[in-house]
Specification:
With 424 residues, the protein is an alpha/beta fold. It is 45% helix and 14% strand. The two termini are 24 Å apart.
Length: 424
């Protein structure tokens, strides 16, 4: 059976790209796949042979307000502000859901749930971090002691807080849809009494599945595709990488922060102390390329799969995609977290042994000497060996195929169940 599938990807590159990978596999299987996301990703979506769906808003504005430099209460206020600023989102979500036979959403795309309920269409939850209660750890409250009941209850608190931030908009939308009011204590885990299929698009090596979770929750492995061709690698970069000792990677992905300039200066001074070489890769925040150093190369874009296989370590903010690709390449990490969920990933990288202690930048008093110590520590044998071991285990996973198999099986089960109910 050929399906029309809509995925709502509300976020940065790291949120959108996994759905493009998933969509390409679904199209290969004979389905149609639409990604509803910000217009800056339209070309990438359509180039992959997928259907693009418009989502009003600006991902850079979103990341700056919500993830880069906010306290928790500031994040909630930012969500309320953004939902009120873009009333067109109602039509964006409605259009995407009407088109689809099955709806997939991730975190902020959870607003699609209400349209799926109205249209009686099956939906799938998917996340890049744990969002179902577990005692093992707490992504949104990473300073809570692990393996504790406080961790487990923090998920309930998180759900209530997210409901508070979106409640005005949700109830306005539900009124338009003719649905009963939502409240702070209703969550997005069931629909019509049925548990919703939940797919965690990360490696079981990085974040082991909690055995206490119910059997509708799966850790599939990362949704990755084959490495990029080497045609995209500039001759200058290749020459730099191959001209001496393997460099470090330094980059902060979708972070938009004034701290990047100061951090660059301190990392450069630390590199002078250690004598290490580095490739600085700019993304949403740009590095100042005028700060020259013979041991440093500046780049705007580099395929990570190519570069990470050639570096000796990865210095980054704790983004989901960066951490995954670094460990997949068997490289140790040093995580300098700006906030959001990044520090949690850093703590998890420590827990599995692929990184020394992470730095939480909002509370850190960084010096070049301190960074130099951490850069050298990162190259310690225990971290290198742990990263190589983790990479070997991750190679056994096929996250995208696993996710597609589960989605197809789930749709058949849901539609067959509906037919049985109608027959009775």
């Amino acid at each position: 059976m050929s399906l029309r599938i809509t995925a709502f990807a509300v976020g940065s590159d790291g949120d959108v790209l996994p759905f493009i990978v998933l969509g390409k596999e679904m199209v290969r299987r004979g389905h149609e796949f639409q990604v509803v996301t910000f217009s800056c990703f339209r070309e990438r979506v359509e180039r992959a042979g997928l259907v693009y769906g418009r989502l009003h808003g600006d991902p850079e504005e979103m990341m700056k307000k919500m993830l880069s430099e906010q306290e928790e209460t500031g994040v909630l206020e930012a969500i309320r502000e953004l939902l009120h600023k873009y009333p067109e989102l109602y039509q964006d979500f409605e259009n995407g859901c009407i088109w689809a036979d099955l709806i997939i959403y991730m975190q902020f795309g959870g607003l699609a749930y209400h349209f799926a309920e109205k249209l009686c269409k099956p939906c799938v939850r998917t996340f890049a971090l744990p969002y179902d209660p577990t005692k093992l750890y707490s992504p949104l409250f990473p300073f809570i002691k692990r393996n504790s009941l406080r961790c487990k209850y923090s998920y309930v608190l998180s759900d209530i807080m997210m409901n508070w931030a979106s409640l005005d908009t949700v109830n306005l939308w539900r009124k338009r849809l003719g649905l009963p009011k939502w409240n702070l204590f209703r969550f997005y885990k069931k629909m019509n009494g049925q548990r919703i299929l939940t797919l965690y698009q990360y490696s079981n090596v990085l974040f082991p599945r909690d055995p206490a979770w119910k059997n509708h929750i799966y850790v599939t492995g990362e949704w990755n595709e084959k490495p990029e061709t080497e045609e995209k690698i500039s001759k200058e970069l290749r020459r730099f990488v191959e001209s001496g000792e393997a460099p470090l990677y330094v980059g902060f992905g979708s972070i938009v922060s004034k701290k990047v300039e100061e951090l660059q200066e301190k990392i450069l001074r630390a590199l002078e102390i250690t004598g290490q070489r580095a490739v600085f890769v700019s993304a949403w925040s740009k590095f100042d390329t005028k700060k020259s150093n013979p041991n440093v190369y500046y780049a705007e874009y580099v395929p990570f799969t190519w570069l990470f296989s050639r570096v000796r370590g990865v210095v980054h903010h704790g983004g989901a995609g960066t951490l995954n690709l670094a460990v997949q390449a068997g490289k140790p990490n040093l995580i300098l977290a700006f906030g959001g969920d990044q520090y949690f990933r850093g703590k998890q990288a420590e827990a599995i042994g692929v990184a020394p202690e992470s730095v939480f930048l909002p509370k850190a008093d960084l010096t070049a000497d301190f960074l130099a110590e951490r850069l050298l520590e990162m190259e310690g044998k225990q971290y290198v060996d742990a990263a190589i071991s983790a990479a070997k285990k991750m190679q056994q996973e096929n996250g995208c195929k696993t996710a597609c198999d589960l989605i197809e099986t789930y749709f058949r089960k849901m539609t067959n169940g509906r037919k049985d109910n109608e027959a009775n």
